[in-house]
Amino acid sequence: MAKKKYTFIDLFAGIGGFHTALHSIGAKCVFASEWDKNARLSYEANYKDVEPILFKKNKRGEYLYFNEDINDADPKKIPNFDICCGGFPCQPFSVAGLKKGFEDTRGTLFFNIANIVKEKIQAGHPPRVLFLENVRGLKNHDKGNTLKVILATLDELGYGYSYEVLNAKYFGVPQNRERLFIIAWYKDLVKVDSFKFPYGISPDGSTIYEKEKLKEGTLPTKVSDVFEPSNTIDPSFTISDKMWEGHKNRKERNKMNGKGFGYSLFNGDSVYTSTISARYWKDGSEILIDQSEKGSNPRTLTPVEAGRLQGYRIIGNGWERPECANNQNNNDSNPEFKIVVSKKEAYHQFGNSVAVPVIKRIAEEIVKQLM
Q1: Under a CB-based contact definition with an 8 Å cutoff, are residues 132 and 187 in contact?
Q2: What's the confidence (pLDDT) of residue 63?
Q3: Helix (H, G, I), strand (E, B) or coil at 215
Q4: Domain shared by 84 and 175, yes or no
């Protein structure tokens, strides 16, 4: 636990993966922004008791610090903060002439982050650390120009930076999920040359700092870590004959055409699943659970299981394997996450979320190395 109470803002907040992680290291959220109305419902339901001031309203019933559209946020009215968190969408930049950096980000959502930071610097309250997340493809997006402009902008604003692609499967969740993380620090305040990323968690819970050591083993995982008891799962999660035939036929066609797309089938003993996406609600094809031993078609994950796959502690109907109720993600030291939206929206939100254990371990390292 951090000795000092740090403050952070949560931009493009989603359902609060950053919030859960930063709260675990003792940080306080002073401003959040999320435009999706259903994600806002989930965010407020799960963090209102933790950070009631965040959801304070004025006399007109408008939120003061729980912003909806980032384009409408006035940087001057955002409270000062130590850490800026943001899982911003990946957008192409207009890089004609490649100026210094900041000007090239205009018209994109990254500009909003940069503009808030710039305003705080000019007001004499530079954020100490920027904690940014994106899809792995950002590295090569628009032939690398997108990342180049982002890094040039950070440099222009006075920040040093390190970036790395990390995989959630090495952090105790059974999901093969790669994401790019950028950690930046204000050079006038933080005198370091680089940030040492955690690459995974070893079986004894310690942090792995060298990629090579991942081969020696990480926290063991099984897909059944996230399962609710099989006798509680509604038959509606088992896919229909028509859908199962469609999946198999599509996979065969794609194979003949040299494409790798189709369904992915896992069982409880599988070490991890493929990456869950925001479209999982459509047909669940990227993660189907084998039920052939029952003589049944595969099933999709339940919303509870989809959330656990991202490291959220969701009680649901309990666990198929009772010992999983006390692993690093589900023990009592983790806040319970409540699902308050429809099944479709829950899948969409979890597919868009960050993997909480990865964010938590990075947050711990930010405190150790940069605060």
Answers
A1: no
A2: 96
A3: helix
A4: yes
**Active-site residue, 90 included:** yes
In a domain, 156, yes or no: yes
Question: What single string gives the DSSP state of each residue in 303-359?
Answer: HHHHHHTTT-B--TT--SSGGGGGSTTTSTTSPBP---S-HHHHHHHHHHS--HHHH
Query: 340: domain CATH number?
Result: 3.90.120.10
Please indicate, yes or no, whether residues 77 and 176 belong to a single structural domain of this protein. Answer: yes
Which structural domain, as residue segments, surrounds residue 263? 223-352
DSSP 3-state assignment of 75?
A: helix
The model's pLDDT over 141-159, given as tens digits with 9 standing for 90+, comes to 778 888 888 899 999 999 9
Q: Are residues 365 and 326 in the same domain?
A: no
Alpha carbon distance 207, 171 (integer Å) = 9
Residues in the chain where the model's pLDDT stays below 50: 1-2, 95-97
For 321-341, letters b (16+ CB in 10 Å) and e give eeebeebbbbeeebbebebeb
Is 108 in the same domain as 149? yes
For the CA atoms of 199, 164, 356, 326, the dihedral, rounded to the nearest 10 degrees, stands at 0
My answer on whether 210 and 240 are in the same domain is: no
Which residues lie below 8 Å from residue 362, measured CB to CB, with a gap of 6+? 21, 131, 166, 181, 183, 197, 198
* Whether residue 254 sits in one domain with residue 134: no
- Cβ–Cβ < 8 Å for 315, 249: no
Tokens describing residue 205: 């819970």
| Inter-CA distances, 54 with 47, 173, 211, 304, Å | 9, 30, 38, 26
Confirm whether 2 is domain-assigned: no
Q: Is residue 46 part of a domain?
A: yes
What is the DSSP secondary-structure string of 129-163? EEEEEEEGGGGTGGGGHHHHHHHHHHHHTTEEEEE
Q: What pLDDT does residue 142 have?
A: 77
Query: The domain that contains 201 carries what CATH number?
Result: 3.40.50.150
Number of structural domains (the chain) is 2
Which amino acid, one-letter code, is at 65?
Answer: Y
Question: Is 241 a domain residue?
Answer: yes
- pLDDT reported for residue 93: 58
Q: What is the pLDDT of residues 258-295, one digit of tens each?
A: 776 678 999 999 999 999 999 999 989 999 999 999 99
d(CA 276, CA 264) in angstroms, rounded, equals 11
Residues 27 and 14 in one domain: yes
Q: What is the pLDDT of residue 79?
A: 96
